[in-house]
Design goal:
The complex is a heterotrimer of chains A (170), B (314) and C (435). Chain A is α/β, with parallel strands linked by helices. Chain A is built from 3 helices and 8 strands, in the order βαβαββαββββ. In chain A, the strands form 2 sheets. Chain A has a 5-stranded parallel beta sheet with strand order 3-2-4-5-6, with helices on both faces. In chain A, strands 1-8-7 form a 3-stranded antiparallel beta sheet. Chain B has a 5-stranded parallel beta sheet. Classes of the chains: A alpha/beta (170), B alpha/beta (314), C alpha/beta (435).
Chain lengths: 170, 314, 435
Amino acid sequence: MTARQVLQQADIARALTRISHEILESNRGSEGLVLLGIPTRGVLLARRLGAILEDVPVGSIDVTMYRDDLAKNPTRAPSPTDIPAGGIDGKTVILVDDVLYSGRTIRAALDALSDLGRPRAVRLAVLVDRGHRELPIRADFVGKNLPSSADERINVRLSEIDDSEEVTIL
Amino acid sequence: MRHLLSTKDLSRDEAVAILDIAEDMAGVADREVKKLPALRGKTVVNLFFEDSTRTRVSFEVAAKRLSADVINFSAKGSSVSKGESLKDTAQTLAAMGADAVVIRHSASGAPRVLADSGWIDAGIVNAGDGTHEHPTQALLDAFTIRRRLHGPDARGKALDGVTVTIVGDILHSRVARSNVWLLTTLGATVSLVAPATLLPVSTAGWPVGVSYDLDAAIDAGPDVVMMLRIQAERMNAAFFPNAREYSRQWGLDDERAARLPAASIVMHPGPMNRGLEISANAADSPQSTVLEQVANGVSIRMAVLYHLMSGSDA
Amino acid sequence: MSIRITGVQLPDGTRKDLFVDDGVFVDSVSTGSTSVSADGLIALPGLVDLHTHLREPGYEQSETVLTGSRAAAIGGFTAVFAMANTMPVQDTTGVVEQVQSLGERHGYVTVRPIGAVTAGLAGERLSEIGAMAQSRAQVRVFSDDGHCVSDALLMRRALEYVKTFGGVVAQHAQEPRLTLGAQMNEGALSSELGLAGWPAVAEESIIARDVLLAEHVDARLHVCHVSTAGSVEVIRWAKARGVKVTAEVTPHHLLLTEELARGYDSRFKVNPPLRRDEDVLALRAALADGTIDIVATDHAPHPVESKDCAWDEAANGMLGLESALSVVHAAVVASGQLDWSDLARVLSAKPAEIGLLAGYDAPFAIGSPANFTLYDPSATRTFATSDLRGKGLNSPYLGRELPGRVIATVHNGYATVLDGELVDAAAVAKEAHHG
């Protein structure tokens, strides 16, 4: 079976531009916004959004320690959490991830956030929403809705760390 | 990794991975909520057959910051000193459902015996066994050195090319043994300095240099000088004539400390005998990492507990 | 009881039939006797262990004279010398006679008690050596085994006083100050494992002192469980000078090395400790060239709880009787360093000679006491607790492949082992008293 490309480089760029507009629109400007990416590729996407939005602090939030499946998988090495200097108290935090699937990662991120401070609001931006939610979580900003079956694999490749830039389904 | 019994068993990659996790753990201490939920619902038993408030508290804080339940089983003054064996204690803890046992024991190899025994199916962390090893102390020492040398860019790095001189009672020091294996695995060059009475009769197979002359070792300008604690009972057993002579020959006094390069760091696993193996000025100087070592101990022990207790192989 | 053994190979390689009647070897026996076809088996003279701990009286949870005798018989032994560290100590006529008579009552092997050199093994004053020598037990070997007679003057007196009664002092050579808290052989490995070292010099210095003392007072000295290459050199030197010294090595020091301590498994904790490879090789060579005279087991049973603990806390000692023959076979016979007649010498004739035990000087000769064992050298087995017959389980060989197997043992003309299994205790006791 070969992977089928569902987003090309230009599609990804367009999606991010559209998401950044939507964020500004819903927030009525960039005031009080903080972008927090979820490692690994969510951090890269957050940085790209930050570059489009300008003047919006970008950080990362590691959710490893908050996962509910730690005991079921081989030990995961955590990634750094990096909260921008202004903190998150009273801010509108936009969580950024590459693929929204079961919702468990976002649940862990919400828990991690609450240990770090008290944002005014938390929004979620994802490049791909593939469905199959196991928790009552939905994204506020979606690059592409991609209905998939549970046995398919969605792969997001970004040029910063991968040798190509695309989203494929296998 | 199922147990942490000896630093000799650690590969370079494993050691660096633990140090990296400790970097993440270190950030938790600065947060409003100093707690991670990673080990929620797990039980860590601190099984201390030997008094060591500092090490026990360090492990306790580490486990609690990871949301584990902590049971302190101080075997001293309990049924253990009345003849209850390691075996009975282990089986009792197993029956209570311990997921990890942090053990301090006066007998070398006791953690290994526990891990191999089949008496208990828990991860075993050696918190100091006799005159054998003290792996988390060595890990926190390596972590402290790495942070001093590399600052915020420490992640992923080892200790290649770093020169470390360990001074004092090598013969009885579990800290020295664990550091010898770990620091050399991480690429450091380690040398030991002590009177012959306080060196093992043979260090064949140890990847270290050995000498008797502290002044020459200081003049070599090591990146790290690690002073070991001298126990009072060694004096009574004729390992050296008296404290004055020991201090004169092998103590880091003000004069020797002043001869160290400005960038060298001075370490001590604590508790210190100020004025014996280390002068008060040397202990309190900006070169000293004594307090950092204590703080880093919690981060390292969090990393070790996380490493042992999370994951499907735990 | 009369016994016919057909087609057996003797230690010198000859094949013949053996006949036993009324406790001794005879020319022929009538039909109706117990008959054993011994094709492929070797007949060895009854093995004699100069160094056994039977633990009774006082430590019956570890071993008794009966259980230790059974362990001995299944190992091919027909006589054992029982060490003095019982409770009460074998330092008076009463205790040695009790041990002797327990051995006689059970009948699996001849039990010869060893007398303590010093009262209570305390190393302070001589025990009643004369009384024990002249008792019904006729004690000839005296030892404070487990404790070294470290006081030079006391050792001199012991050598002289024991000579008075024609006996021998068997010394556990261990300088006590050099071995304070000692846990294993001192060297690179003990340094790494953080276990207090038992330096070779602590053994060698005592042996050197003792051979000089023995020379000075012209007395016999026997050195227990020699464990180092340096000790071999000292003994070789002493023998060349004509000192009346004999020496033993244990089976475990011929086969096992200190590397086994690496896992802190206290089954391998023993005193003197397991040593380096080069020591093992030197001990084998010394046994082959006669510098070391005999093999003795130092069979030291312990209850499970004495070994189920941290290394420092565990008791010293390992089982030896059930496995000795196979271990010596593996260590020095399989390699060709010793042949079967050498093995008969180091495990039977010579220990009997040192211990002044009669009846072992002319094995298999018509009229000699019928003490022998039939051994199948071609068998192999993974040694297991099911091979043990004493009370202890602290064998260092469990799980190890060992050659050979004892098929039958005959003590004073009656079988204690047949078809590889112990003969029932009541039957053995009946034969022992009938004879």
